[in-house]
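Practice problem: predict the structure.
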Amino acid sequence: MRLSAFALVALALAPAALAAQAGTRAPTPTLSLDDALLLARRNNPTYLQSLNGRTRAGAAVRSAYGAFIPSVTSSLTAGYREGLPQNFGGISLGASSPTISTNYSINAQVDLSPSVWLNTRQQNLGQSAADYDVESNALSLRQAVIGQYMAVLQQIARVRLNDTLLANTQAQLDLAKARQAAGSATDLDVRRAEVQVGQQQVAVLTARNQAEVEKLRLFQQLGVPQPGDVQLTTELPVNLPGQSLDGLLTDARDKNPQLRALKDREAASVVNTRITKAQYLPTFTLSANISGYTQKYTDGNYVAALPAAQQGAVTTANSAFPFSFTRNPYTLNAGLSLPIFDGFSREQRVQVAEAARSDAQFNVRAQELRLTADLTAAYLTLQTDAQSVTLNTRNAQTAREALTLAEQRYRVGLNSLVEVIQARADFERAESDRITSIFQFHRDYAALEQAAGRPLR
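Answer:
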């Protein structure tokens, strides 16, 4: 079952409350690897922050297509003019009454230059690259979560090993005391056994603390609070991927999201170069305007002094103020402009764009080389890890048998406690190496998936 952050916390808290009411022990909350990956994608702050790049790219695409829709602006103004005439060449013009006026204007314009058409292609490539960035970040998050999940399981395995060793050392202490009582062991054997128990108790305490620390780091990756005593349930088998190295390389070159993002940005840089060179081409624009006005004379004496024929017209015009506009003739304009010289600014922008395109091409080439090297190295490392797991498992089994034999010989008095301690140390190292190799295999498997650009199991 896949869990949300609240559901996971509820697993820790709600059963405890119900159990307290019923007087029973609450069930232990569990977390599978699939649940951990899902929680991380929903709650990891760094990953969620990376999603904003896709949002910005989508807004840029909408803006690019919006350039084909005429931009529309409007204005509404009000004014006052003092009632004094203006003199032009000795001629007095204008009314002697103060006037107030309102004006409106609506303008629409569209730019149909070549760069507008090319910009849509560039922004679509940018959005595609942003989508691949999100996919790449999801793979990085997957690798980090798997690595930390394995770190917790590895530390839990070390806790179990130390618990086993503690039980073993305690049994040896009891045996040493029994043999001392029977006169077949010295006080030195008992003291050595007591030291072994004390050292192993410290090792158990340290291992348990480290396991809790690794859990805290895991839930930090998931972006949710850690429930108390949560148990991890996923155990992955040590199986190599079924695909060959050549097959993985072929798929990665086609599907690796980081490489695909760089290829899209390379294509976008090519389009940007064309946009920059389009500055040498003419720019074609269409525009339209409609407007209107009202005007009112505020001096009633001035209106009364006018001839009777004009008074009616002025009174009618005054009553139109402020929103009964008189429309001006509308205008339509088509413009064609051709830039001739701008101080070599266009040449500079073209050179910068071409350099950016060259950088993008080199970035793609570098990533292809890096992908081949990383994927090959990860594949070979995983092969070595699998062999190490086999050898360390065999060594641990042999060391366990040797420890069992040493204990049996000590029990019947055929060897000393020192030999038992040495055999136990050999077993501890061998078992620790086995645990390390198993979980290193799973971490390197996640690194191989990261290089391949997709999950492989």
